[in-house]
């Protein structure tokens, strides 16, 4: 394909605004998938994604489309929609020259619409606004067009109004892709330069990388080198996605609860693996206090990924925590409650804009650890689901941090070690102990659950002993029966994590983390 006949684009949207439905229509319209086969949402291939109805992992397809007597190759790069996955969005965008920004004609601009728009804008991509679901009874495409003009400074006439569900006007979307998005700039005569924006592993074929080509060409038999790791590979096969390739994962640490649950579910479903989850943590930093320590760590500032390696106060001049710039869009009636929630999360208000008569956009600087676990869920519940949220990186700020251990009968539970803000240590510690008490089954002996900062215990709960002994029934009796009972008991234990002699069911961790 001549480079000038290629377009690389993504669809970005707030959750549920219709990205996958539009992608399906585009695939149908270009004959990439068969309409009659009811291939609902081919791009959402993974089982979890189907079950939860959300896109988690970027998928890609190549479409052929004839327009004005010419055939074009349109590479559609799918992006995840949920707030927890914005890293994967930016990576996919770096392979594109333009985006379709899909906005629901009834809900209008939401927080992720804003965040996704700015990711595309900063990457200097052409943005084509698409107002979807115009078939809905409450659709108000005119109002949404005005919001788009006000918030993104894109003339409302540029909006394409469609119904992805019914297929209305979807062909003008493809034409706009050709007319408004520039072809990629590839210098085929230069040495190969490509970005791997996604990769998968196939047991039989090896690593399958989805690449965006910037310079040169790549063919079967070529020897290529990773610019990052300097490792060399041989190219066995070159292809495009039209639309099938089997995906696996490579995830970035957990960015939020949904991400964590989805990841856990994927591991279990796709790999039959059972995992124990740990507290989602953010990368804190510590500035070391002495030349000796700097020499020992080979760095002045160390990043603490694992809370268990948190350096004690005497070794550091200050601790730093990551902060993010959060955007909340909400109907005005919830503004008060949302401001109170943000304040409780140590957030600092930066901006407040009315995007139309009854919607407000709030910008706050949040410590990342305050939103990573359940902020999104709280926001949704106090706004009856109407407020939306997204965030972007905003560097680091000084913070009073302490390490908190959770002990069961004096033994530390590694999975639950957390770094918390000093002010919040007591509340967080108390809540973890209470949750743990609720989710730990009673066992043969009493269990003391303690939260401790250094050697100081700041919260405690007790799980009373479970008196009934399984073996009591066969006291003095039948040995085979006794063995059977013990065997059954040990099978039940496989899904358990043992701390000292206390057994913790795996889902107890999720329960504890969810409500921290
Ligand atoms: P994520 O994958 O979670 O990011 O969602 P999405 O943006 O891909 O949304 P999806 O395509 O799954 O659509 C969400 C819901 O809106 C589904 O129930 C669709 O059937 C519905 N929907 C999509 N487009 C239209 C439309 O044009 N009209 C109407 N009435 N419903 C639509």
TrEMBL record:
Gene3D superfamilies: 3.30.70.240, Elongation factor 4, C-terminal domain, Elongation Factor G (Translational Gtpase), domain 3, P-loop containing nucleotide triphosphate hydrolases, Translation factors. PANTHER family: TRANSLATION FACTOR GUF1, MITOCHONDRIAL, TRANSLATION FACTOR GUF1-RELATED. Promotes mitochondrial protein synthesis. May act as a fidelity factor of the translation reaction, by catalyzing a one-codon backward translocation of tRNAs on improperly translocated ribosomes. Binds to mitochondrial ribosomes in a GTP-dependent manner. It comes from Mus spicilegus (Mound-building mouse). One of its GO terms (cellular component) is mitochondrial matrix. Its main location: mitochondrion. Belongs to the TRAFAC class translation factor GTPase superfamily. Classic translation factor GTPase family. LepA subfamily. PROSITE patterns: G_TR_1 (PS00301), G_TR_2 (PS51722). This is GUF1 homolog, GTPase. Coiled coil: none annotated. It catalyses: GTP + H2O = GDP + phosphate + H(+). It is a peripheral membrane protein. Keywords: GTP-binding, Hydrolase, Membrane, Mitochondrion, Mitochondrion inner membrane, Nucleotide-binding, Protein biosynthesis. It is found in: Mitochondrion inner membrane. CDD domains: LepA (cd01890), lepA_C (cd03709). SUPFAM superfamilies: EF-G C-terminal domain-like, P-loop containing nucleoside triphosphate hydrolases, Translation proteins. GTP binds at residues 13-20, 78-82, 132-135. One of its GO terms (biological process) is positive regulation of translation.
């Amino acid at each position: 394909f001549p480079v000038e006949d290629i377009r690389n684009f993504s669809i970005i949207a707030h959750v549920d605004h219709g990205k996958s439905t539009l992608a399906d229509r585009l695939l149908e319209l270009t004959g990439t998938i068969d309409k009659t086969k009811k291939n609902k949402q081919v791009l959402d291939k993974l089982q979890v994604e189907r079950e939860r109805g959300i896109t988690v992992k970027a998928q890609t397809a190549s479409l052929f489309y004839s327009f004005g007597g010419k055939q074009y190759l349109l590479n559609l790069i799918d992006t995840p929609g949920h707030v927890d996955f914005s890293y994967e969005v930016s990576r996919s965008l770096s392979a594109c020259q333009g985006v379709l920004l899909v906005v629901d004609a009834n809900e209008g601009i939401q927080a992720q619409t804003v965040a996704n728009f700015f990711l595309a804008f900063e990457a200097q991509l052409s943005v084509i606004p698409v107002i979807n679901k115009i078939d809905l009874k409450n659709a108000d495409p005119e109002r949404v067009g005005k919001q788009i003009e006000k918030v993104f400074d894109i003339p409302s006439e540029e909006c394409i109004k469609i119904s992805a569900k019914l297929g209305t006007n979807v062909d003008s979307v493809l034409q706009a892709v050709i007319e408004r998005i520039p072809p990629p700039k590839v210098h085929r005569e230069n040495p190969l330069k490509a970005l791997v924006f996604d990769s998968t592993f196939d047991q039989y074929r090896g690593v399958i990388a989805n690449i965006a080509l910037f310079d040169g060409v790549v063919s079967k038999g070529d020897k290529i080198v990773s610019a990052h790791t300097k490792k060399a590979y041989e190219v066995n096969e070159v292809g495009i996605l039209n639309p099938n390739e089997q995906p696996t994962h490579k995830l970035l640490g957990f960015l939020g609860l949904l991400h964590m649950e989805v990841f856990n579910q994927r591991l279990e479903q796709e790999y039959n693996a059972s995992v124990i989850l740990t507290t989602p943590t953010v990368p804190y930093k510590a500035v070391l206090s002495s030349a000796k320590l700097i020499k020992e760590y080979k760095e002045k500032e160390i990043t603490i990924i694992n809370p268990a390696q948190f350096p004690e106060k005497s070794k550091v001049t200050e601790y730093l925590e990551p902060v993010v710039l959060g955007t909340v869009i909400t109907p005005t009636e919830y503004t008060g409650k949302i401001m109170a929630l943000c304040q409780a999360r140590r957030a600092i208000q930066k901006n407040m804009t009315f995007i139309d008569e009854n919607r407000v956009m709030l910008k706050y600087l949040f410590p990342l650890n305050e939103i990573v676990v359940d902020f999104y869920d709280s926001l949704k519940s106090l706004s009856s689901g109407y407020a939306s949220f997204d965030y972007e990186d905003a560097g680091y700020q000084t913070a009073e941090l302490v390490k908190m251990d959770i002990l069961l009968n004096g033994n530390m539970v590694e999975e639950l070690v957390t770094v918390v803000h000093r002010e919040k240590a007591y509340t967080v510690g108390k809540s973890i102990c209470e949750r743990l008490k609720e989710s730990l089954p009673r066992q043969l002996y009493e269990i003391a659950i303690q939260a401790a900062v250094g050697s100081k215990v700041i919260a405690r709960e007790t799980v009373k002993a479970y008196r009934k002994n399984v073996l009591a029934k066969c006291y003095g009796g039948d040995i085979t029966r006794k063995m059977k009972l013990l065997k059954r008991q040990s099978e039940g234990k496989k899904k358990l994590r043992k701390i000292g002699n206390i057994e913790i069911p795996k889902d107890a961790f999720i329960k504890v983390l969810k409500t921290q």
